[in-house]
Amino acid sequence: MPHVTRKWELFPGRNRFCCDGRVMMAPQTGVFYVTVCLIAGTSGLFFVFDCPFLAVHITPAIPVVGGLLFIFVMSALLRTSFSDPGVIPRATTDEAAYIEKQIEVPNDGNSKIHRPPPRTKEVLVKGQPVKMKYCFTCKIFRPPRASHCSLCDNCVERFDHHCPWVGNCVGRRNYRYFYAFIVSLAFLCVFILACAITHLIMLTRDSKPFLEAVRISPGSVVVGVICFFSVWSILGLAGFHTHLTTSNQTTNEDIKGSFSIKVGEGSSNPYSQGNICGNCFYVLCGPAPPSLIDRRGIVTPEYRAEQEKVGDDSVITNSKTYGTVEVVQPQPNGTTVQTNPSTELTGSMNNLVTGQHSPQIESMNGSTTNSVSQLVTNEVPLASLNIAPIDIDEIAPLPSRQSVVVSSTLDTSSIPSVTVTPLSASRLRLLQDTTMIESALDLDSLEDASVGRGSQAGLIKMGAV
């Protein structure tokens, strides 16, 4: 039979899939296997060394209770680890274009240079404003309480945290199983610890020294030590998530203090149901939402083409080049040149700053009139010219318009010969600080005001060239 391609095979995130897409986990699963080995190994030692003795001398219910707790813990763990935590699908190309078209804010009415999209929108939840952040990776405005997991590279609905112990994110679709896992694990840990201590005490009570009891049942000592050092953190984690459940919060919201009482103003939780029981029923017993990614769906040619297009767009978005040199048709008073950093321009700027020059052109005189004219009409790359650096102290501030106006008619007969002289260290540092070229520009951390200042600073240096 021909191979049928499923959607999980083209999934854009970093998740790992098994069993033909039925199992979905985080990319790193090493700690998850440690968790499984610790629980299974400790329980196995308990069933081998403690249960036979305690079933005879106390009650046969002890191995039954231990077995039921172990099965419940492993079921909750596997359900948490192997399920979709609530991944939000990324926007298609058309959806991303529609969103960006709505939120694009031009710098100037006559300019084609646009600022990056604003990061947030505000919506009202029970009359309280809640921010929705724009995700530059998924090209969507994340719903309230959602967040982008940097390890799995997905936006997760009602994101709680990424837990390496379960090998998956904890979100809206698997939080109830995660809570059941840690609470039942706390009960299992306390139960095994109590049974192991009881077994050792009963052995020493039969006129046997403690070392003899250890020799008879070494597994009880190992189980007791593991459970003693683990029970405190497990009990603390269970108590913390019980607090979050009763208040209908997530770990992410609690750490950020999203609903804490601020100085001079109160910030209540708009998602609370009003009481402890209502919050517990809502979080743990509410209807489970369906998965949004359809990871086992069959890939159609249209879906494959869309995914390839989205992948190409993401490569372009992640590059560090945010524009090229664009020349607009000459206007009556001159030619408007719109510039953004490009590869050729970056190289020429580096040469100007470091004082290196090309041997082809040592000066500008009357013979370079054609070259300058070609530069204005975008026929000669900037890297082929060698122009002396401009003293930053002598640069006049540009007007608020984000463009550089160059006269269409240049009189080069009066241009004297210029030589290249390196800048001093202080001026070199100042000049480098006024440009965005070769900077690690993180669009997700930009605000509107900083974008405007950065673009202006970049154009100041280009105007100096």
Key phrases:
13 helices; three-stranded antiparallel sheet; mainly alpha; elongated; 45% helix; 465 residues
General description of the model:
Residues 318-412, 414-423 and 425-465 have low confidence and may be disordered. This protein has 465 residues and is mostly helical. The chain has a three-stranded antiparallel sheet with strand order 3-8-7, with no helix packed on it. Strands 4-5-6 form a three-stranded antiparallel sheet, with no helix packed on it. The chain is built from 13 helices and 13 strands.
Low-pLDDT sequence parts: 318-412, 414-423, 425-465
DSSP summary: helix tally: 13
Structural class: mainly alpha
The strand count comes to 13
Helix proportion range: 40-55%
Major sheet:
3 strands, antiparallel
Please trace the helix and strand order, writing H or E for each element. Answer: EEHHEHEEEEEEEHHHHHHEEHHEHH
**Strand order of the biggest β-sheet:** 3-8-7
Q: Strand share of the residues?
A: 5-15%
The value of Rg in angstroms is 33 Å
**What's the end-to-end separation, in Å?**
64 Å
- Average pLDDT across residues? 73
Short description:
The protein is mainly alpha-helical.
Topology:
Elements (H helix, E strand, L loop, with lengths): L15 E3 L4 E3 L4 H28 L3 H22 L4 E2 L4 H11 L16 E6 L2 E8 L4 E2 L5 E3 L4 E3 L4 E3 L4 E3 L4 H31 L4 H7 L1 H30 L3 H6 L19 H10 L15 H18 L7 E2 L7 E4 L4 H12 L14 H8 L27 E3 L18 H9 L14 H17 L1
Antiparallel strand pairs: 1-2, 3-8, 4-5, 5-6, 7-8, 9-10, 11-12, 12-13
Helix pairs in contact: 1-2, 1-4, 1-6, 2-4, 4-6, 5-6
